Write the structure tokens for this entry.
Amino acid sequence: MTTTDTPTPGTAVNAPTARTELDAPAVAYRKAFLALLARDLHVLLKNLPLFVLRTIMQPLLLMFVFTYVFPKIGQGVGGKGAGGEELFTAVLVAGVIGLAIVFQGIQAVALPLVQEFGYSKEIEDRVLAPLPTRLVGVQKIVTGMLQGLVAAALVFPIAAVVPATDVHLHIRWLVLLTMAPLAGWVAASLGLVLGTKVAPQSVSYLFALVVLPLTFLGSVYYPWTTLSPIRWLKLAVLVNPLVYMTEGFRAALVQGVDHMALGWIYGALVLFAVVLTWIGVSGFEKRVVT
Amino acid sequence: MPEPTTTTADPPRIDPTRAAPEGKAAVIRATGLTKTYPGGVTAVDGIDMEVREGEIYGFLGPNGAGKSTTIGMLTTRVLPTSGHAEVGGVDVVGNPARAKQVIGVVPQSNTLDRAMTVAENLEFHGRYFGMRAKPARILAAEMLEQVRLTDRASMPVMALSGGMAQRLMVARAIMHRPRVLFLDEPTAGLDPQSRLALWDILREFHVGGQTILLTTHYMEEADQLCDRVAIIDHGRFLALDTPEGLKASTGVDTLVKVTAEGGDLARLADLLREGIEGTDDAKVGDGTVTLAVQKAKGLLPRIIDLAEGEGYSVTDLSSSEPTLETVFIDLTGRELRE
């Protein structure tokens, strides 16, 4: 037992007098919300090297294998003919951006929440911050969305450096700058839903049953429009929000490839975002308040 | 014929202002507070309570008595099935976000932010409660001083001992100057030294006028710290008074434990009950007979004489004052830690 563990009794202590003047509710909620965001940002910056490593690993390896190794060993993907490989690279960049954002939803929202609800119980303190419990859930979505945007941005330098072929991205800025936050919102709210529903001991099932199908059948490696020969699959994957993200990024970045109509993409993503946010936030409140 | 089922009679309704300090405002007020969990278990069964400013108010009861659920309802984490509760004048059910501004909570388990250091835990807590970064940092340092953790400021919280983590959680809960500090089993699992350290800190807060509500199943904790103690079992208040008032209510001033051999202890208990003047009760348990006695002068020699005269050999004899445990046994027929 160290001496620091034994306070000397009778030491003068500032009398903690209770505050009588309180911030107005709207002010208190805003301050608490921003402080919770600041906390997440602080933790992120503290662990920045780890965050970057965790975020770029998947895009880096995907781009490396498919757009550097394959062309070099003559194992072509992306169809025959001139420009086939270059086009595939652009298609893949769009897919990988969508994938990176979805992974942030899992890594930045779902997995920490599973832990905080589970063994660490930290969530019990976070929800005592002076704002409505639902807003604590909303704050988690905002954090996840911001991290998703950072993850998406990190894909571009990888795409510029790694591929063996030239990469030609035709950026439609308006689409890109609306698609990225929208995709981030969908991914983060999906993360909130999963984080509030999955028990710590079931995390491995989360990967096998949700993350893998989501990513492999999310039109990451091929445009959704090219699925016509497998019509049932083309229809089935429409329940996968990643399909709309990758199609959206294709619309924003790639010329010369068909993509789903933008109206459908935006409509579906907004619908996913609203529904998943609602389910996630109410699920969060139910987990917290018994 | 099946035996008739015995239903425990409803305990008498206890006046929530019993033994309350005069002239102080109520900071917690609850009426008919009830929680029935899905599945039909009623954890809290119609509690009326009032805690006044500056009091240390304790819930004493065994595990599962409904203490934590009651704290949960008062701190917005558990929704009452019925009843009403106000803390600092705020309806905790109708306006939980507002109520969270006026409460400080030390929960049963360690809920420190593991991603941050000791000082950062306090700093960000201050910011959740509306402080700017710099004042929050300064106050965090002062709080660490108060709970004697200054030299651990830059450590990760995972490196703290149980007692230190508990003190940090107390500092965190008090930092935004709540109207009421809630502590749920604050010293459960702590070593005796850490427990005393925490008691000292709470006493200092008390001197400073802080209202405190704590739950405990340690009778010493209730006895030594609390101004008033509510004895709680099966979700109901069985008694409410100052610790002294509760002990006086047993009508007994001495407990004598007689360890004896050489015969039937039940018979010895009967003999002592009849033969020792002022004996209120005599119970047999674990090789001993425990006598509850009033006005016990020259008691021990008389007990030995009587027992040995009947052929028993008394191997040990000890006397003590009644404790809150005695009160609990009196009220429920069970021990606190059963």
